[in-house]
Amino acid sequence: MTSEARYRITAAFMPLLDSALLVTARDMGFAAREEVDLTLVRETSWANIRDRMAVGHFQVAHMLAPMPIACNLGLTPLAARTIAPMALGLGGNAVTVSLPLWEAMAVPGAEPDLSPRAAGDALRKVVATRAASGERSLRLAVVHPHSGHNYELRYWLAACGIDPDRDIEIVILPPPLMADALGSGTIDGYCVGEPWNTAAVQLGTGRIATVKAAIWRSSPEKVLGADARWAGENPEALAALLRALYAAALWCADSANRDELAALLANPANVGRPAEWMLPALSGELRTGATTTAAVADFFVPHARAATFPWKSHALWFYSQMARWGQLAHTAEAAAAARDTYRPDLYRDALKPLGVALPGANLKVEGALQAPTPVGSAGASLVLGPDGFFDGGLFDPDDLDAYLAAQNPALAGRG
Which InterPro entries does the record associate with it (predicted)? Predict the structure, then answer.
């Protein structure tokens, strides 16, 4: 702890590549420049982060983007009211399957190009073949019930004709256990953030089948979750931290810093895995199998496309999936609580003095931008997109009821 620091903040994080903004804010001195003494505590599960936030051990945390919403909607057994004043980048995760499953998927047409449609169609045929022959259902893992991994995996499966509640089994595992579980045969595949997909490839036990950046392009993965009471009582400290994280995002986005960033993340106190495991996600040159690679330039986006802006439309899409999959009953009040969990007003207040590009709107139609598009903003110019869902779907946050009804007719008219 530095005696000069004006603010002292303790943040939890999971050993994932997308903790990069928090790690960089501390280790490259961006937090100190904002007079923030930032202490990072590495945790072993997302549930631990949620529970320790609830009992006051942390003021803020690296959080799954839907988790603050779930906390505020009473979907978790122990939770503080939590806000999300900043996103921690776009993209960053992938779907990895075991080598036997990939071999089975290759027979009906899975390709090594990470196409969600081709991989999903092939997986559906494998699922059908296994069911016809009486084999057990495939078991896929995600990191938490209220995670982008769970919702995007389900979206992908459903759009490819696989019922995620009937045709397969979905289980919960912490990210660092995924590759080992795949290697032991406990699970057949998983959706997780990096470097835990690369880990399975490096260990020779898995194959990357598709990526988040292809399923829902330019979508959020983690946010900064903040205890709402602490944030309300310490607005200047929170604003200083947001400015530090914004500076960290700029630094992480500079390709000249890529090797140094990989080394920072590889530190045993941070992600604690080899730098070589970090570089594929940072460069966008993914090693998908033993002898194959694929280029995904926007696999992890720390700054471009307003990557740190907490869009309320992102919050409402996650809410829509909570309702779609029966985690809550859709009501207008619940939708409003989900929407108001994300706080672009706090983001703008903190960053306005920097003169940086700030979106003029709080919501946008997800999937509407087919190419990079200049948009209205305060401060510097801003370009958003491309974005969108692999199946061509659109999510209009102003027409939530119709979206829910189209995905699940039983939900029509409840909003």
Answer: NrtA/CpmA_ABC-bd_dom
State pTM to two decimals: 0.95
Q: Which amino acid is at 373?
A: T
The helix (run of H) or strand (run of E) holding residue 98 is strand 93-98
Q: Could you give the domains of the chain?
A: 1-302 (3.40.190.10)
Q: Give 206's contacts (C-beta < 8 A, 6+ positions apart).
A: 96, 97, 98, 99, 102, 179, 182, 183, 189, 197, 200
* Rounded Cα gap, residues 144 and 163, in angstroms: 19
Query: What is the residue whose two structure tokens read 């919403």?
Result: 69
What's the average model confidence in pLDDT over 233-262? 98
Q: Note the residue count of the chain.
A: 415
| Segments in 28-136 forming alpha helices (H) | 30-33, 46-54, 67-72, 99-106, 116-133
Cα-atom radius of gyration of the chain, to the nearest Å? 20
Which of 219, 221, 215, 211 has the alpha carbon at shortest distance from 285? Answer: 211
Which residues have C-beta within 8 Å of that of residue 352, sequence separation ≥ 6?
Answer: 358, 378, 379
Residues β-bridged to residue 36 = 7
CA–CA distance, 160 with 330 (Å, rounded to integer): 25
Backbone angles phi, psi at 149, to 5 degrees: -60, -45
**Quick one: pLDDT band at residue 272, thresholds 50, 70, 90?**
very high
Looking at the predicted structure, is the pLDDT value of residue 393 above 50? yes
**Residues 97-144 pLDDT 10s:** 999 999 999 999 999 999 999 999 999 999 999 999 999 999 999 999
Beta bridge partners of 170: 140
3-state secondary structure of 207: strand
Rounded-to-integer distance, Cα 189 and Cα 127, Å: 13
The span from the CA of 89 to the CA of 219, in Å, is: 9
Taking residues 70-82, what's their average pLDDT?
92
